[in-house]
Write a structure and sequence with these properties.
- With 178 residues, this protein is α/β, with parallel strands linked by helices.
- The protein contains five helices and eight strands.
- The protein has a three-stranded mixed beta sheet with strand order 3-4-5.
- A hairpin with a 2-residue loop joins strand 6 and strand 7.
- The longest helix has 14 residues.
- The protein is flat, with a radius of gyration of 18 Å.
- The two termini are 20 Å apart.
Length: 178
């Protein structure tokens, strides 16, 4: 994918559309965000807006995140307990004026200390009507879920990963699909 868009959200939408095309196995993202003059903001203003927006989102424990902004690129660092918190933070930021992109350095460390069970992940994947579970292999090692096999599109690859991330106690998902 290549080209220029007006904001970070348009970049993410273009990525989503391409990944949803059946048969697409990989993408190279060369989309540039070229802000209109009216959308350009200084890094300090962007950082203040990001911090305020994260404070207003009850699902994201913003006290656990460090926000830095350089040339319109927002970097998030810290430890969160759930992947949905990471996704929520990204979704809050993606619509902000002046943001060119997000660099996600967030680590997930679930509060739940129980051992993950392979069967729980496999059952969750089977419940999804769009997943072809016959071609998906699941392996669990400690707090990490490994997904492998063959899927028909990047969308299916990301959907399997999203489902795995919703497993209680997971700290990491390794997506090894072909």
């Amino acid at each position: 994918m290549a080209g220029t868009v007006d904001n970070y959200n348009q970049k993410k939408e273009a990525e989503h559309i391409v990944k949803d095309i059946s048969g697409v196995k990989a993408t190279i993202d060369d989309i540039k965000v070229n802000l209109f003059f009216s959308s350009i903001r200084n890094d300090k203003d962007i950082a203040s807006s990001v911090i305020k927006a994260l404070e207003e989102k009850w699902g994201v424990p913003n006290h656990r995140l460090k926000v830095t902004v350089e040339d319109g690129w927002v970097t998030l660092e810290g430890i969160l307990h759930w992947n949905f918190q990471r996704k929520t933070a990204d979704n809050v930021i993606r619509y902000m004026r002046g943001v060119k992109g997000v660099i996600d350095k967030i680590v997930i460390e679930a509060e739940i200390k129980n051992q993950l069970e392979k069967e729980i992940v496999e059952k969750a994947l089977k419940r999804s009507w769009i997943m072809d579970i016959d071609n998906i292999k699941v392996r669990v090692d400690g707090k990490t879920i490994f997904l492998s096999g063959i899927v028909s599109s990047l969308f299916h690859k990301e959907e399997a990963e999203r489902i795995a991330w919703h497993t209680a106690g997971v700290w990491q998902v390794e997506n090894e699909f072909l």
